[in-house]
Specification:
This protein is α/β, with parallel strands linked by helices and about 475 residues long. The protein has helices at about 105-120, 135-145, 175-190, 210-225, 235-245, 250-260, 285-295, 300-305, 315-320, 335-350, 360-375, 405-415, 440-455, 460, 470, and strands at about 5-15, 20-35, 35-40, 50-55, 60, 65-70, 125-130, 145-150, 155, 155-160, 165-170, 200, 205, 230-235, 265-270, 295-300, 325, 390-395, 420-425, 425-430, 435. Strands 1, 2, 3, 4, 5, 18, 19, 20 and 21 form a nine-stranded mixed beta sheet that branches. Strands 6-7-8-12 form a four-stranded parallel beta sheet. Helix 1 (about 105-120) runs parallel beside helix 2 and helix 1 (about 105-120) crosses helix 13.
Length: about 475
């Protein structure tokens, strides 16, 4: 018989409210799940249970949905590209520096383990993992306990620079089609995985590295398989100008012309639209309208861009216009709660408006918005019939106090430090703030070794032959 768990008398329960299609606080409330499904929400439950958890000093909230992340590579960049950008490529680090610092075969699983642990500890229960396919990926993803959306990336070209100010593309369209076929095999394997928690997404990598045929074929596969589709687009000034040079269209215009904007589509980042101040007076201002009318979702990942002085202008403005939005972590730290803080503060800074964005809107994006982007209505919410993806937050943690509004205390102060317990699909994966499924400490030690190895490869890969420390010196000189 399935195991039944009663979380009794939650001091605050963030419950789905169908009347507002959002969430509401419920006080002194029980929540019960049997197996992987929530079966009861309300006070004073008296039915039979196998386990009872006292939640009288806890906030119980839905698991967060991270719709854009790169666990297999990005954790290794900590300390390397935190303050790194190409001065002659509009501050981006994508083209000159990202290709120089990649984990080797041993570093990839270490990187993924670190990211999975950090995501779980920050309340993520569903993760879109956008990585290049690697040996052992699906089994490790399943072992983590996360609800995993496998999103193997592929492309028709690689980008590079020979001088630090011109981006070039090495094209191999046949190689892109072959890589797509291999990615679809991985997606199919995820659907068959014995864990029952893995699914797939179709993800041609970046708009500027894919042929129109590859993008159209990818979207057709997503439709045929009834899967979400995601592509990086409008993520840099370089890309904006490259696409307008090639096609006389903005990145969003070009995607619309290809017929790939839809309710199943996700645009990774969606920053440099035709209204952005860096678009340099493009003679139209309706990229947002194309996104809105097509039902496409924007995956917003603020921290990685804020490190380089880049931001959406503004998130509140997107939402007021009617843009569907989800939240992603993209890069290190893989801490969803820190991303949520950055969403609010960053958007208010850019808009110079304290009322630009409310935390309720941010939480909705990180739960309901993410779920809808993944074409699901059974995650990102605490409701009868939904999946038992549940986060329990310690209201007695010193950084949560005073607890006037627990979600504000969590996002704006305590973050992952106050996350006590996490359930995914009804299984406990975090307890007392520690991941139960993976060894975080061992993974971080292995990742450290992988970074040491990567440091030695930088000079050989860099167009100017610079060492890692010449490109990214320490905060202070070593004496």
């Amino acid at each position: 018989m399935p195991h039944t768990t009663l979380i009794r008398n939650a001091s605050f329960l963030v419950a789905y409210d169908a009347a507002t299609d959002s969430h509401s606080y419920r006080r002194d409330c029980d929540i019960v799940f049997t197996g992987d499904r929530i079966v009861h929400i309300g006070p004073g439950f008296t039915g039979d249970v196998d386990e009872t958890i006292d939640a009288s000093r806890l906030m119980v909230m839905p698991g967060l949905v991270d719709i854009h992340s790169h666990p297999a590579s990005e954790p290794m960049n900590k300390g390397w590209n935190d303050e790194l950008g190409s001065a002659k490529l509009w501050g981006s680090s994508l083209y000159e520096f990202m290709p120089l610092f990649r984990p080797d075969a041993q570093g990839i699983p270490a990187s993924a383990r670190v990211a999975y642990c950090e995501l779980l500890m920050s309340g993520v229960t569903t993760l879109v993992d956008m990585s290049g396919a690697w040996e052992g990926w699906l089994d490790l993803f399943a072992q983590s306990g996360l609800r995993g959306v496998v999103s193997p990336m592929y492309r028709s070209a690689r980008w590079y620079t020979r001088d630090g100010h011109v981006v070039e593309y090495e094209w191999d369209p046949a190689g892109g089609e072959k890589a797509m076929a291999q990615a679809m095999e991985v997606v199919d394997a995820a659907a068959r995985h014995s864990s029952g928690r893995l699914s797939g997404m179709v993800s041609p990598s970046q708009i500027d590295t894919c042929t129109p045929e590859l993008i159209r074929d990818s979207f057709a596969e997503a439709e045929r398989r009834d899967l979400p589709f995601q592509i990086h687009a409008a993520q840099s000034v370089v890309e904006f100008h490259e696409m307008t040079r090639r096609h006389g269209m903005t990145p969003i215009e070009w995607l619309e012309s290809l017929g790939v904007l839809s309710p199943r589509s996700i645009i990774g980042h969606g920053i440099f639209l035709d209204h952005h101040s860096s678009a340099l007076n493009w003679p139209k201002r309706d990229d947002l309208a194309s996104i809105i009318h097509s039902g496409t979702t924007v995956a917003h990942c603020p921290v990685v861009f804020q490190r380089r002085g880049i931001a959406i202008q503004s998130v509140g403005g997107y939402l007021r216009r009617g843009v569907k939005m989800g939240i992603g972590t993209d890069t290190f730290p893989h801490n969803m709660l820190e991303e949520l803080r950055a969403v609010g503060i960053g958007s208010r800074m850019v808009s110079q408006d304290v009322w630009d964005l409310r935390l309720s809107q941010i939480i909705d994006c990180a739960t309901l918005g993410g779920a809808r982007a993944l074409l699901r209505d059974d995650i990102g919410r605490l409701a009868v019939g939904a999946k038992a993806d549940i986060v329990m937050v310690d209201l007695d943690h010193p950084m949560m106090r005073p607890v006037r509004d627990p979600l504000r205390s969590l996002v704006y102060a305590a973050a992952e430090r106050a996350v006590r317990t996490v359930f995914v699909d009804g299984a406990k994966v975090v307890d007392d703030g520690r991941v139960l499924t993976l060894d975080y400490e061992a993974a971080s030690a292995a990742l450290q070794e992988a970074q040491y190895r990567a440091e030695g490869e930088v000079a050989a890969a860099d167009w100017a032959g610079r060492t890692s420390y010449e490109i990214s010196p320490h905060t202070y000189p070593q004496t």
